[in-house]
Amino acid sequence: MHYRGAPSRRNEKMDRAKSVRWCFFLVAVTVLTIAQVSGNPKQKEEENLGREYAADVERQVKLVTDPSIADRVKRIGSELADIANKYEVPAAYGSSEIYPFKYQFKVVEDKDVNAFSLPGGIIYVNTGLLELVDSDDELAGVLAHEIAHAAHHHLTYLIHKSSSVDRYVALVALAGILSNMRSRDLNNLLLGAQMMRIGKLSSYTQEAEVDADRTAVAYLVKSRYNPEGMLAFMKKLEVKRTESPTVPLGIYQTHPAPYRRASAIAKAMREEGLSPDLRRIQDIAYAKPEPIKDKEDLYQVVLSNRVFCRPASLGSGPCSKERAEQIAKRVNSVLDAGLRPTDISFDLSRQSLLAKGVEILKIEKEDIALQSKDGASLLEQAHSVLEYAVWADWLCNDCVADASSSDN
After folding, report:
1. Please, how many CA atoms are within 13 Å of residue 44, restricted to the half-sphere of its CB?
2. Which terminus of the chain has fewer Cβ atoms in its 10 Å neighbourhood, N or C?
């Protein structure tokens, strides 16, 4: 047996240093391998939570698989999701830490105008909302908003910050307890209740909604889509609400007032170096006489892109075009002078629409015959359109004033 002599003290130190470096290398490789296999534990937790919520959602809704519908949402959504996974936007609510989610975009067969996102980047858009959007820019604005909710972890932040169970979930829990439900089933019931309350109805705090709008603008600026689509969609939501005031819009119920959202969106656009032309986008507070398509010699007065009235020709009196021009002039005159919704009224006979006591529209028997509607309905239509124009003008002025003050 060959016996090797004891190493020198210097060689011993060198061997120990090599061993330490080798150990550090092994630890680093092990940690890196574990990280690659397991990923960010917080991200995994969020993705798992989203999958649980999604399973509950998809047990209760019908998904649209028609490629002509679903593929458009996926295409636009995926473009914006790639931006969200690369471009960090400071969060005013939640956290801006980027988790590279594999975003999913699904379409729900539902006439309600709504969209919502779940943790981990699972996003649902209702067919009712898709019917309302006219352009990819508008749809991109909606999807960017929902992506922002997921990217800034709004829902998980809200869940972790909640110190008490809201009344809705408490009632569900009580029902489960009274029915002697097993604890596991009760937990599933509570999870579903939270999802329906927080996820599907988009019951985020107003801070989260403002943050999502601002973040959406930042994403859109990095994309090929025009952020002005968000403002155009705000206008459509308000028109929809005005036309059907008794029908709640899911996307509208828990969000800040539209004029405040539009103001914040306009401000965010200016911060990104854009100058939104709000009056062009909204096309508001200006009455215009226009010929009616395929109706020879008939005109209508359009205000805020809505039909204010369709005056008929009055026998030996003014023709339809002349009446439309006169009515539009009177409407613009009262709008220029400043008008509030409370300034709009009807005369005692309910044949005329008044603004600050001045007649701006009188319904004639020829108008009733032309449109096959009673005079009260025609007046109500005109009243609704004028009231909306007043609101929209206020919205536009509020946005401009807010954006201007942000520069000072």
Report:
1. 7
2. N
* 292/382 same-domain check: yes
Instruction: List C-alpha distances in Å: 372 to 41, 314, 356, 366, 369.
Output: 66, 16, 29, 10, 5
With vertex at residue 233, the alpha carbon angle to CA 332 and CA 134, rounded to the nearest 5 degrees, is 100
69 with 166, same domain: the answer is yes
CB atoms closer than 10 angstroms to residue 321 = 16
CB atoms < 10 A from the CB of 239, how many? 17
Torsion angles phi and psi, residue 248, rounded to 5: -70, 140
Q: Are residues 181 and 74 in the same domain?
A: yes
Q: Do 293 and 266 share a domain, yes or no?
A: no
pLDDT band at 234 (very low <50, low <70, confident <90, very high): confident
- Let me know if residue 2 belongs to a domain: no
Give the strand pairing for 287-291 and 299-303: antiparallel
Domain that holds residue 346: 282-406
For residue 104, list its beta bridge partners: 122
Q: Is 28 domain-assigned? A: no
* CA pair distance 362, 8, nearest whole angstrom: 112
For 284-322, how does the pLDDT look when each residue is reduced to its tens digit (9 = 90+)? 678 899 999 888 799 999 998 889 999 999 988 899 999
Q: Is residue 117 part of a domain?
A: yes
Is the domain of 106 the same as that of 241?
Answer: yes
Statement: the pTM of the whole predicted model exceeds 0.85? no
Q: In whole angstroms, what is the distance from residue 128 CA to residue 98 CA?
A: 31
